[in-house]
Amino acid sequence: MIQSLLIANRGEIACRIIRTARAMGIRTIAVYSDADANALHVQMADDAVHIGPSAARESYLVGDKIIDIARATGAEAIHPGYGFLSENAEFAQRVISAGLVWVGPNPASITAMGLKDAAKQLMQQAGVPVTPGYMGSNQDPGFLSIQADGIGYPVLIKAVAGGGGKGMRLVERPEQFADALASCRREAAASFGNDHVLIEKYIQRPRHIEVQVFGDSHGQIVHLFERDCSLQRRHQKVIEEAPAPGMDAETRAALCAAAVRAAKAVDYVGAGTIEFIADASSGLRADRIWFMEMNTRLQVEHPVTEAITGVDLVEWQLRIASGERLPLHQDQLGINGWAMEARLYAEDPEKGFLPSIGRLEHLVLPDNVRVDTGVEQGGEVSPYYDPMIAKLIAHGAFRDDAIARLEAGIDDTEVWPVKTNAGFLGNLLRHPEFLSGDVDTGLIGRDGDELVHPIEAEVDELTEVAVLLAASPGEGPWSGALGFRMNAAPHAVVRLRDDAGTVYQVPLAEVNAAEPARDVLAFTGGFARRYTLDRHEGGGHHGAHDGDIVSPMPGRIIAVEVTAGQTVAKGQKLLTLEAMKMEHTLTAPFDGVVAELNAQAGAQVQVEALLARIESAG
Description:
By secondary structure, the protein is an alpha+beta fold. It folds into five domains: 4-103, 3-Layer(aba) Sandwich (Rossmann fold); 132-201, Dna Ligase, domain 1 (2-Layer Sandwich), CATH 3.30.1490; 223-452, D-amino Acid Aminotransferase, Chain A, domain 1; 459-533, no CATH class; 548-616, CATH 2.40.50.100. An eight-stranded antiparallel sheet has the order 14-13-10-11-12-15-22-20, with helices on both faces. The chain has a five-stranded parallel sheet with strand order 3-2-1-4-5. A four-stranded antiparallel sheet has the order 6-9-7-8. α12 (399-411) packs antiparallel against α13 (422-429).
């Protein structure tokens, strides 16, 4: 058994690996960048070594540094987690060549499944059904456009080296193809160093279903059943569950058998996931499910599989990497109950899910569900990495039980002042289609506005807040309230204002607040509100000019689509900002004229920098 392990990752997954390694008596070594000097994974590990500047390309993505640190600290093995170098075959080979144990599949398996076009051709040879599309080497834009016409719109453009929802564009009409292809290639080149793409037929009512597989170095491969990851936003998973709703035993057997064939085709060792797309227009049927890709690593959503099977997948990874056989045979594995995971992100759903960065001044995570996190109160959400705060995982005997427990966990989640998607997650769990199990990958896109809308503040919440904010006689709303006495019916109404500018009028029967609070935080159904007393009768305060286009976060401008003085229409693309590994398009808020333009392609900008100003044409 491995005795010492370097974790070449950060955040939640690094903490997750450390917990299992510690339980197995394995010494752990963490690495950290400048931005992560005080991070939770650094505190949890037995040893921690600084690896470089905050930018991942200068720290977590520098393989030579990681191997040098492993040697210097006496680590026997390297676990890459997910993301970063986890699916980099060259790095895996260098780890092995350095005499270290690589906790992952063989480099040849990573290579075989790393490029989507080659992987699909390999799967066809192995008898695994694949989605119709073009996977050839001709990358001429005109030729690709012709191929898309032949496949039939809508189509998906996908980077052959892509993953995690990056390097992927949905194209619904021929006239959109050229722009979508250029954008996809830019993102693919920046994220993966490879701008080659393939084109797939877009399934109109798709479900994303994946199968967890595991192989050992003795030739044994098993599956640990399926996960449904259909709730997605911009091709990134939001809520995952296991098993998949509506999956019958016959379809499950066919699907899982195909996943095992796929793994055997590349002599797979370790944890991997075979991802499929299903046409759910007629329910789940084995003949309407196709291979998409294989992720040759541990998945973010692996806890739901752990919950229904009782297996610690990280422990299995470490045992298999140590040369052991799989702990269980296929007939010893079964499904127990239902599990569901929600990804809690630092992002603002009401502003297009733009990442929210800053200090976690107030952070309370639930104790009634499993929580996998890499942050703690007082920590920072930085602009350098994925903005995940935590994963909340609920397990119950039935699907309804898992939903109820996860919803309760979200209700107990409190984060401030960083914005989160907690309320959005709560709305998703209450959505009628989700509750019925009738989900597909387009649900969030169809009902996005409804899902981000905050639930109304409850009367009990407003009353409690009003009591906490109410001032003693001679101050605030009680000033001049003739006949007012503490613990008596008031002759005035307390006016509250939340951080969104909404004003509430709250009558109170009694008040017990000798020392009033300046502001009060309240959390309802995942939505956070900060209340203060409203002292401006009938008036609200205004922020920046409605036509100001400001940078929502630090980033780099990669495209400017307009010029100063140009007339623009509401919703027209103004510029594209690259930040936190994603492209963000900023558009005109209304019809008008570009009165000011401070943006240049290639320029780095800071948060809230004024990039452009639109003045009304009227």
